[in-house]
Amino acid sequence: MTRVRLLVFNPALSVLDYRLPAGMAIEFGAVVLAPLGPRQVLGIVWEPDRLEGTEVPDSKLRPILEVLPAPPLPAPLRRLIEWCADYYCAPMNAVARMALGSMAALRGGGTTTEYRLSGLEPQRLTPQRAAAMDALHGEQASIRELAELASVSEGVLRGMVGAGILEPVTVDLDRPYPRARADFAIPALEPDQQAAADTFVGAVRAEEFAPFLLDGVTGSGKTECYFEAVAEAIRMQCQVLVLLPEIALTENFLRRFEARFGVPPVLWHSSIKQSERRRAWRAIVSGEAQVVVGARSALFMPYKALGLIVIDEAHEVSFKQDDGVRYNARDVAVIRARFEQIPVILASATPALESLQLAEAGVYAKIDLPARFGGAELPAIDVLDLRDEPPERGRWLAPRLVAEMRLRLERGEQSLLFLNRRGYAPLTLCRHCGYRFQCPNCSAWLVEHRLSRRLACHHCGHEVPVPEACPECHTSDCLVACGPGVERIADEVAEVLPEARIAVVTSDTLNSPEKISAFVEAAEGKLIDVIIGTQLVTKGYHFPELTLVGVVDADLGLEGGDLRAGERTYQQIAQVAGRAGRGEKPGTVIIQTRHPEAAVIAALSAGDRDAFYTAEAEARRDAGAPPFGRWAAIIVSSEDEAEARMAARAIGGAAPDLPDVLVLGPAPAPLALLRGRHRYRLLINARRSAQLQDIIRGWLGTLSFPPGVRVNIDIDPYSFV
Ligand code: ADP
Ligand code: ZN
User: Fold this and answer.
1) Which of 195, 295, 624, 720 has the greatest number of CB atoms lying within 10 Å of its CB?
2) Terminal Cα-to-Cα distance of the chain (whole angstroms)
3) How would residue 561 be classed by pLDDT, with cut points 50, 70 and 90?
4) Using a 6 Å CB cutoff, which residues line ligand 1?
């Protein structure tokens, strides 16, 4: 090979040919540096027959500069990257980017310098330095990361290094991870669990593609079962990837993993620090990382010898990425397993309809765990009709729910209230003139956060302090909070049960591993009587003393008319209900609703999951919705409203006229303004037989747009806003 084709990381040019200098050896998948104009560009050596490019005569080729000291991306991963780019209509280099670590990681291991407090306590400190010292207790990271942690400039910290308050520490990026021990603490499994575990272990040994849907009720011990497959992979010296939907769940997972295997797994998610990322990436590519636990971004990494993938809480919508490459990690994980020829386990108590459908069609092997571990009963579910039993004026909890909570408090048991709304109130308005606080960048109300005394946009992060007076009519003391968020429910609980110890659990309050651990410890140690939380508390946790779950507003998720609203509500409530009665004491769930007749609520109260899924599947079949038909969305945006509208109209005007494809829109998006961009949407509904991606590529490929317009394609969309 003297001529090489590169997939390069440049937004405008993605495929370029180069010459291989004499004496340089190269393999497909190698990561290299090459010249591009006066600069250098990173690229991956690709099979030329799989990557279309323009032919350049040999005489014009420039030589590759350097092969980076990282192993080549293995062929199955290259196939996965091609598949994703094709399926999700995404640029191939954007997909491939997710497989690479940082430039520093590609450059090799070695050492790096981090900083920590030296213990020196200067007599006089500037307020900034004093604040930094408070914030940096127990921390060690790069100057940039510490600056972010302490909310001070890097300059302040460099000054502190100069003064000896912070000291440098040399960190070895190649220091090995402690070895997980497959036989550290083998549990005694119940017969159902054992059968499931045996199947998984057999599949790991077979080293073939085998997709499983592990469908087990909450508390059935799904983790224990798939841990046996993890153990087998460890014995076989294969790597394992466990995907979790949220970083918040990793803490809990770590504890259980450590109890089973003696050491923590290797973590990969957006909040691990730079040196740990480099270390983890190097260990993943070398094969040294045995078990990697991470959020969806862990899926694309170049594992040396992957032997098993597990997707826990596989129904979670957060596996769908909604910016950049819009992929669904659950689906891509199965495709990766196929390319790698390994088993993949989707675990859930409330599987996605799509997954159940594939199990029914025989594509996934379905493994059931129908009962809770240790003979614990599933909780009793009680529907509370808010029209018959309204809360007092200005309150949100019905008297019966409060009475049940009081009973738990008297017995020393715990209650959990679920409301999927952060902050104090979703809308603030002026009683005098009717002014409503809206985000300047988004079509959304500002949410009051009383703990931080701010009004915040949950879409773009815009924040303002809560003003004294109405900005419109300047009347003071006239702002009213409308509707409840978790903070408001916490206030109400403090009023009705003043002696209760309350914890509010949201991404605002549980935003670090330390805080999550502290919460879990407090809850397990019975230092909390009432937990009030968003979807963050609906899954993963196991608190034996928790015997009452109250769903504050079951109707909330059904508003908005999203395709999956019913399914998502079912999953959320079934999951949160699953937190009750996991120990020896039985659990009760009270669902507050104004629509007890809604199919979801009826199914939940009857405990009839099958009926719900059957009805839901029927409705989707009639609508040609997934998994029976296919959907794609085209989202057009620009900072200029007219420009966005015109581009969307041009796309609508060029829509193909095909018998198996229906194009709806363009229409202004429900979130018509997001982060300062005006948005329009088109929705495409296609039969399964349609070549949806080719049709969209052909359709959009003929059009061109002004530079300020962005056109995003979302295949199998989950978000419709
Ligand atoms: P799920 O994920 O299915 O909701 P978990 O895996 O959280 O259930 O299991 C529920 C609880 O039961 C956990 O505390 C777990 O440690 C315990 N458990 C499950 N199976 C066993 C077993 N075979 N031996 C001991 N404890 C178990
Ligand atoms: Zn906003």
Assistant:
1) 295
2) 49
3) low
4) 187-190, 193, 216, 218-224, 373, 542
